[in-house]
Amino acid sequence: MKQTSTRREFMQQAGAAAGLAAAGGFALGARAEDKEKPMKRTYGISLAAWSLHRTIGDGEGKVPMLDMPKMARQEWDIEAIELVSGMLASTETSYFDTLAANALQNNVAIKLIMIDGQGDIGHRRDKFREIAVENHKKWIDYAAGLGCHSIRMNWKGDERGTLESPEMLKDFIDRSVPGFTALCEYGDSKNINVLIENHWGPSSYIDPLTSLMKAVGHPRFGTLPDFGNFPDDVDRYEAVDAFMPYAKAVSAKCYDFDDDGNETKIDFEKMLGIVCDKHGYDGYIGIEYEGGDMSESDGIKACNELLKRLRG
Fold first, then answer.
1. Which end of the chain is more exposed for a tag (fewer CB within 10 A), N or C?
2. If DSSP states are collapsed to H, E and C, what string results for 80-93?
3. Angle at the Cα of 184 (from 46 to 103), degrees rounded to 5?
4. pLDDT over 90 (residue 161)
5. Helix pair angle (236-243, 206-216), 10° resolution
6. Can you give the pLDDT at residue 35?
């Protein structure tokens, strides 16, 4: 996709209107002189499109993705959104131009795109790793055109036994490093970061993901800690703590809420104590409602209210 000057102007204006840099860079730690001062949570709140995966679509009764900026602003007064590649109806230039224009009209910033189904960077076969790199480069282009700061990739692998075998895991990490390095270097030219979410497989375990972060060692390579997406044998709070030094975005996965407005599966106060108070994170935290007992609209509203209350 060739980025048009029109879309560049759209997103530059949108970034200015929202008081944000187009690249959306985050301050990942508190200043040294503020270390002894009480921490105030200053994170922004964004909305992940996956929260609306039952609402948005092309069929009868569905809401088109192009209307998501309007929904975010008018229904919940949320100022930023995060897209999901598989929920976009098109990758044509005209489609992205319209999406960018709708975001500008509603004073909503588009922060990142979550990429699925574009290949495995750590595949056993060279050919498929090369294809995965080229596929994700296209999404870096799309993200840059929309004024995002990052793309989110998956890193779960498909080879059985990877987590059980130290040798297989090391091979998987070693195979993954060149592709992620190449994408980060390409991201340098577009001002786009490459993020890994704990999205099952090795990415949901502390040692594999932190080992990958260190092995790539590129400033554009980072994590997107998700409060959910952990298997039962992983302590979610310890894992998020371990991932936060590399974090350039955060996902507030939520499922259900009690009568006091608290999430019933995840201790948000404890989680935000790790994310914000301990690590000084003040970027955007994305609402990702994935429950089934509430409507998507009500789930988003409840999470938005909880995040606002805990922000202070």
1. C
2. EEEEEHHHCCCCCH
3. 30
4. no
5. 10
6. 46
Whole-prediction pTM: 0.87
**Spacing of C-alpha 170 from chain mean position:** 26
Rounded Cα distance between 157 and 164, Å, is 13
Domain with 241, as residue range(s), is 5-311
Question: What is the overall mean pLDDT for the chain?
Answer: 90
- Residues recorded for the chain: 312
pLDDT tens readout for residues 88-146: 999 999 999 999 999 999 999 999 999 999 999 999 999 999 999 999 999 999 999 99
How far apart (Å, rounded) are the C-alpha atoms in residues 264 and 287? 15
**113: which DSSP letter?**
E
Q: Dig out the tokens for 297 from the structure.
A: 């609209």
Q: What pairs with residue 307 in β-bridges?
A: none
DSSP 201-221: GGGGSHHHHHHHHHHH--TTE
Q: Are 204 and 239 in contact (CB under 8 A)?
A: yes
Q: How many domains does the chain have?
A: 1
Each residue of 33-47: pLDDT tens digit? Answer: 444 444 689 999 999
Give the sheet arrangement for strand 150-153, strand by strand: 221-224, 193-197, 150-153, 109-114, 80-84, 44-48, 284-289, 250-254
Both tokens assigned to 304 = 């938005």
Say how far apart CA 90 and CA 200 lie, in whole Å: 27
**Are the C-beta atoms of 91 and 129 separated by less than 8 Å?**
no
Q: Tokens in use for 244?
A: 């936060």
pLDDT band at residue 59 using 50, 70 and 90 as cut-offs: confident
User: Tens digit of pLDDT for each residue in 165-217?
Assistant: 999 999 999 999 999 999 999 999 999 999 999 999 999 999 999 999 999 99
Cα-to-chain-centroid distance, residue 220: 14
